[in-house]
Amino acid sequence: MICVLMMASGAGWESDAFARLNSAGGVVVLKRCVDVDDLLATASSGQADVAVIGLEAPGLDPSAVSHLRRYAVRPVAVVASAVDDLDVLSRAERLGITALVSTGDLDSLAEVVSTVEDMADTRVRGLDAEAPVEAAPTDENKVIAIWGPGGAPGRTTVAVSVAAEIARRDHKTVLVDADPYGGGVAQQLGILDEVSGLLSAARLAGAGQLGDRFQSTLRLVSGRLGVVTGLPGADRWIEVRATHPESVVDRARDLGHVVPDTGFSLEDDPGGDFGALPARNAMTPAALAAADEVVVVGAADPVGLSRLARGLVDLREITGGAPVRVVVNRMRSTLGWSEREIAGMVEGFSRVSGLHFLPEDRPATDRALVAGRSLLEVGDGQLVRAPAGVVDAVLPGSLAADESRRPGVRRRMVSRR
C-alpha cells in the first residue's frame, strides 16, 4: 500500500486527483494538506511514501522538497496544462522534482504515484520533454554539529573554538549559527553587521536562489573561516523554516567543513503538526540529522552532568547513527571529581565515541569575549589548546597546525562577502 499526501493549495485539480487516487488499487490518500508547512509537518511523521503537490503552490521551494526526501517521501508535481513546457521544466529543475503530471493527463497520476523512483525517474507525464537530473554532489567535507542541553554549558564557545581550530589547519570552514532561540556567534566573534546571515539564507532558499548566492550570506572572519550569523533576536525564529538550516548546511558543505551551532531543545513544538507556523524547535533536530559527527557539550558540575545524561538519551533518536562525542566543559579541581569518575557517569547513560575535557579558564574566556575573538587568538594555555584534541578526533589525519600561523599573531578583519 502506497500512502500519499496531497497539497494543491486550492487548485481546481485537487478533487479530481483525490477521486482518481482513491479509486486506484494499492494507493491511499493519507491526508490532504492545506499548505506547505502542513505538508512538511505531516511528512516528518514518516508514514507517507509519495507527496502529490502543485508545482506552483505558494511556499514550495527547494528546501521543502529536500525535507520531503529526508523523510523518504517522493515528490510528484501536478502542473497546469496551460503552462509553457519550458517554464514548467525550468521550475521543476530548480525545485529538484523530476516526476510531473499535467492536469490534462490525471488518468496517469495513480500509475506515476505507484511507480515513481524519485530522482531516477525523469518521466514527464502529459508533456513532451524530460526534466534534467542534477548529479548528487560528492565531497569529503564533514558536518560537525555542536549541541548541548539547556543551562548554557558552553555550546557556542566550543563551536567557535572547533571551527577556528579547523580553519587554523588550513581547511576551509563554515560556522553556522543555527540556534532558533537567538545565537551568540556574531557577538563572540565581534561581527557587528546587523544583517543576519541565517535570515538572508532563509529568504534565498525560499526563492530558490541559495545555490547561486550563498556566499553573500557569509561573513569572512579569516581567509579560511566564514560565518553564517544567527537570528538577531529570539522572536525572529518564525522567519526560518526547519528545512532552511538543512539547505544552508548542504550548500556550506560545498565550500568546506561545516560546524553548525545548534539550539538546546529537542522537544516537539506544541501544535506543530497543524502546520500553521514553522516549528521552532525543529531547526535543531534538522541540523543534527544532517551531521556526520555530533559534539555534545555539558558542564562539569552536578546540574550540568545531570542535564547532559538526559540529553544523551534524548539524542539517540535524532542522530541517525552519527558518532557522538562528548565535551565536558569547565572541569576544575574544586568539584572533587576526576576525569575517570565523570567518564563513568556519562558513559553509563549512553555509548559515546569519545570523551573530551575542557578546563575552566575564566580569564582566557573573558579575554576572548571582550576582544570579540576565538579562544585560539587570545594567547596560549590549556583551554586554548584543548579544542585541538576534539578536532583531532573528528577529523583524523587533518593537517597539523603550524604554530607560526596562529591567527592570534595577525590582525583579523571582519568583512562581508
Task: Supply the key terms.
single chain; 417 residues; alpha/beta; Rossmann fold; 5-stranded mixed β-sheet; 15 helices; 15 strands; 18% strand
Give a description of the structure.
This protein is 34% helix and 18% strand. With 417 residues, the protein is α/β, with parallel strands linked by helices. It has a 6-stranded parallel sheet with strand order 2-1-3-4-5-6, sandwiched between helices. The longest helix has 14 residues, at 155-168. The model is unreliable at 119-138, 271-276 and 401-417 (pLDDT under 50).
Q: How is the topology of this model organized?
A:
Layout: E1 2-7, H1 14-23, E2 27-32, H2 36-43, E3 50-54, H3 62-70, E4 74-79, H4 85-95, E5 100-102, H5 109-115, E6 124-125, E7 144-147, H6 155-168, E8 173-178, H7 185-188, H8 197-206, H9 210-213, E9 219-220, E10 225-228, H10 243-253, E11 257-262, H11 283-289, E12 293-299, H12 302-315, E13 324-331, H13 339-347, E14 354-359, H14 362-371, H15 382-394, E15 415-416
Parallel strand pairs: 1-2, 1-3, 3-4, 4-5, 5-6, 7-12, 8-10, 8-11, 12-13, 13-14
Antiparallel strand pairs: 9-10, 9-15
Helix pairs in contact: 3-10, 6-15, 8-10
What is the residue-mean pLDDT, rounded to a whole number?
Answer: 82
**Name of the level-1 CATH class of the largest domain:** Alpha Beta
Distance between the termini: 50 Å
**Segments where pLDDT lies below 50 for 5+ residues?**
119-138, 271-276, 401-417
Order of helix and strand elements from N to C terminus = EHEHEHEHEHEEHEHHHEEHEHEHEHEHHE
The largest beta-sheet arranges its strands as: 2-1-3-4-5-6
**Which fold name is given in CATH as the topology of the largest domain?**
Rossmann fold
CATH superfamily of the largest domain: P-loop containing nucleotide triphosphate hydrolases
Structural class: alpha/beta
Helix content: 25-40%
Count of runs of 4 or more consecutive helical residues: 15
CATH architecture of the largest domain: 3-Layer(aba) Sandwich
What's the total number of strands?
Answer: 15
Into which percentage range does the β-strand content fall? 15-25%
The tally of domains stands at: 2
Q: Which descriptor suits the 3D outline?
A: elongated
- The radius of gyration computed from the alpha-carbon positions, rounded to a whole number of angstroms, is 23 Å
> Strand count, sense and closure of the main sheet?
6 strands, parallel
